[in-house]
Write a structure and sequence with these properties.
Helix 2 runs antiparallel to helix 9. The strands form 3 sheets. A 9-stranded antiparallel β-sheet has the order 5-4-3-13-12-11-10-9-8, sandwiched between helices. A two-stranded antiparallel ribbon has the order 1-2. It contains 9 helices and 13 strands. The termini are far apart. The protein is α+β, with helices and mostly antiparallel strands. It has a single domain, classed as Beta-lactamase, CATH 3.40.710.10.
Length: about 400
């Protein structure tokens, strides 16, 4: 009898989960089961090896699941505890931490960063990845760069110096004049914060995010314990990319995490844990208007009116746009084999986190966002998210 009762309890819980309603930003509702079916359909249609999704209602996770394989050749399943490369999702964590330091008056958003240092910036030689600032010795515009410019991607730096033909750091546009995505800018602010606090960024991350929110499988540097649960990135044929195990912490994108852990952090962020309402509003509100036709590539230097209808802008560490349901803020993560996206509608307290381990992953974002939370506003063309069932517009 006890076994029969236990069976019906389990069956009831399973049916309850499948029947659970999830609210979308337009007020309509959809079942968790139908979202699951949609994800499985999209994965098959777009040939995506693995997907992790968390959906938030009332700023709390109401759906959190993984699908597919973390290692296609070995057919190892993707789980909520599988360790993924977070790519530029790491920048959201850094922005959250930076805003805490701003609130504590450790740093000021508009004070030139070089003024925090006891020695000229161009004299610092930083170990790892040729990180020094000697390349800027003949360009004093670096003295104009502030924390606000770093967080709004308006320093004038390239994304990374090693993408340049000469692999040197340079200021390509006047600081503060234009949005241009730059991991270098985030790393400069990280360096200054480390110098001011006397702590390395991994330690800072542990103290301010990982330990407070119970992120037990997240780190800015690779941990040996991750080896048994590693998620690999894959190309569109399902072939594995080599995994980079980061040895040095970088605010721009060295972090590894799990869906379970990142969901905990994102819950804390959108519910303003550790941030005042003022700091959260400042972080997630427009600071710099974005007028470029695309975020990356040649069209990033071409202005257009394509996104004037949503007032596409950048906040402090996150992108921002406007809708009839209020403002939204978003952050992407991208590298070979990885495509991530998060977006939150604060006024509706509705959000979603999507993480994929496949070059095709970003091709399902447009359809999944519209279906799961009713987001038809994300600037997917600007982000180069060509849907799997189209050939793009160019």
């Amino acid at each position: 009898m006890q076994k029969i009762i236990s069976f019906f309890i389990i069956l009831s819980l399973a049916n309850s989960l499948s029947a659970q309603s999830i609210q979308r930003i337009d007020g309509t509702e959809i079942s968790a089961n139908s979202i699951q079916q949609k994800i499985e359909y999209l994965m098959q249609a777009a040939n995506v090896s693995g997907v992790a999704v968390s959906i938030f209602n009332n700023n709390k996770p109401v759906f959190s699941k993984t699908y597919g394989w973390r290692n296609v050749p070995k057919k190892e399943p993707f789980t909520n505890e599988s360790v993924m490369y977070a790519a530029s999702f790491a920048k959201t964590v850094f922005a959250y931490i930076a805003m805490q330091y701003v609130a504590e008056k450790v740093i000021d958003l508009d004070k030139p960063l070089y003024q925090y240092l006891p020695h000229p910036l161009t004299e610092y030689k930083i170990k790892g990845w040729n990180r020094g600032y000697q390349d800027l010795a003949n360009d004093e515009r670096y003295k104009k760069i502030t924390a606000r410019m770093c967080l709004t991607h308006s320093t004038g730096f390239p994304n990374w110096r090693w993408f340049e033909a000469d692999r040197k750091l340079k200021i390509k546009t006047e600081p503060g004049s234009r949005y241009s995505y730059s991991g270098e800018g985030l790393y400069l602010l990280q360096f200054v914060i480390e110098e001011v606090t006397g702590k390395d960024y991994e330690t800072i991350s542990k103290e301010r995010v990982f330990k407070p929110f119970g992120l037990t499988n997240t780190s800015q540097v690779w941990q040996p314990a991750f080896d048994s649960a590693t998620v690999f990135g894959h190309n569109n044929k399902g072939e594995r990319y080599e995994l980079m195990k980061w040895k040095e912490a970088s605010a721009g994108g060295s972090m590894s995490t799990t869906l379970c852990d990142f969901t905990k952090f994102y819950t804390a962020l959108i519910s303003k844990q550790g941030l005042s309402s003022k700091a959260f509003k400042q972080m997630t509100s427009p600071q710099v208007r974005i007028r470029s036709r695309r975020q990356f590539g040649p069209l990033s230097r071409v202005d257009s009116t394509d996104n004037d209808n949503i007032n596409l802008s950048y906040g402090l560490g996150v992108g921002v746009f406007e809708t009839k349901y209020g403002r939204a803020f978003f952050k992407e993560g991208h590298d070979d084999g990885w495509g991530h996206y998060s977006v939150c509608f604060p006024d509706k307290k509705i959000a979603i986190v999507i993480m994929t381990n496949n070059d095709n992953g970003e091709s399902i974002f447009k359809e999944l966002l519209a279906y799961s939370i009713g987001d038809i506003y994300t600037p997917w063309q600007w982000e180069n998210y060509t849907p799997y069932n189209t050939k793009g517009d160019e």
